[in-house]
Amino acid sequence: xxxxxxxxxKEGIVDxxxxxxxxxxxxxxxxxxxxxxxxxxxxxxDVGSYTQSPxxxxxxxxTLHPRIHGxxxxxxxxxxxxxxxxxxxxxxxxxxxxxxxxxxxxxxxTQNFEEIIENxxxxxxxxxxxxxxxxxxxxxxxxxxxxxxxxxxxxxNSNTLEFRREMMIKAFEHTAEYDCFIANYxxxxxxxxxxxxVFISGAKVSQxxxxxxxxxxGALYEFEDFYKNTFQTIxxxxxxxxxxxxxxxxxxxxxxxxSPAVCIVKHGNPCGFAIKENLLDSYKEALKxxxxxxxxxxxxVNGIVDEALAIEINQTFIEVLIAGSxxxxxxxxxxxxxxxxxxxxxxxxxxxxxDKIDFKHIEGGFVYQEADFITEEExxxxxxxxxxxxxxxxxxxxxxxxxxxxxxxSNCVTYVKDSTLIAIGMGMTSxxxxxxxxxxxxxxxxxxxxxxxxxxxxFFPFKDSIEMAASAGIKAIIQPGGSIRDEEVIQSAxxxxxxxxxxxxxxxxx
Length: 510
What we know:
Rossmann fold; 21 helices; alpha/beta; Cytidine Deaminase, domain 2; 21 strands; six-stranded mixed beta sheet; 510 residues
């Protein structure tokens, strides 16, 4: 029996090789793997001496040889293959344990293109694919975390066809992900990220109970390793909808640096937001915007939930809580909430990845784009279009209102006063209707918009939105501008003594 070990990731390889040797496997190896095995007194045969063909071109060619690939690929139940193997002195290779040159890690640590090119593995993927193709006879291994189960299977004579089939699937996933990253990287470098082909790959983290509805299957996948290594499930099981709602709440709550921001989301849309002196006050104020919708909603807290905040949250039904972390006393407060789900990002603040790309499924394909970011500069450099200038307090509220509007479904308008969202209209076919819906909700909640500011993620096409804002007591407005009737809008703002700012950047979210 022969096992070929050639790994870039050396984690666990010494113990794995020792066990294989004790089970009677003759070990073939290359390069750094061979060196570490011999340093640990594990008998291993150099692939170069085995093939009688030296490594060439600084290691670019070392395993591309018939004795290697023939040993992997020949069919053990095919008489012609067996005869060919005998004639050419090709011995069976029964285990292929290979993982690949660290191409991705190399791109993250250097811009040296020559070094990056040299970390494109050729022999590794060839051996993995050969082992996977011949899974009926060969066990292929690509992940160090699989070593313990492999050893258990070998020791207990349970290296079954079904098991090798599962390892075959993992092997093809391994090489597919590797090639996807290389292709996407080259397109980022040479085609601004928009190549003729684009590849989206993710590693499965877990099943969700179902998809958006009970008759749909669902699962969570990740691009890197945040959800497996950092994201913490403290209580309950997140559903498909929980993840999408948390994502919406987190993006808003983390858009204000380290501020003690709190965001409440229901069905993907914010129904509460505030930044006060502390998280407890932020939550109390955020809840005032729409406590009816907040019931059963998702709460994102950009910080640590302590006992006092937990007691306040506990007074209503929040289905999902996501925070930087929670104190033990806070967790005790929630212990009897059977339906509540609690998660954390494992730190002082909410700290989640921000992807640079975005895509959306459409029937027959998907549309793909650079992710939208609301920069501090576009707000800081917003152009004053009116005679009246916003006060510093109003300007701070404009900042909050604009970011919330940009991160909420279009058409969207947001009303903010004293760093608190007091009204919001979103997902409407008309910006006027969005304004009407927001003001009606504020009235229902007993909230005054007098002295508030207004933001829109796209331009107001007519002055009617300004007139409505004036009747509601709005004192400052921020929007992208760009309508053919901008001058009418500006004149209306001046007429009603409203400070008006244009950012020049639209933020549709569909």
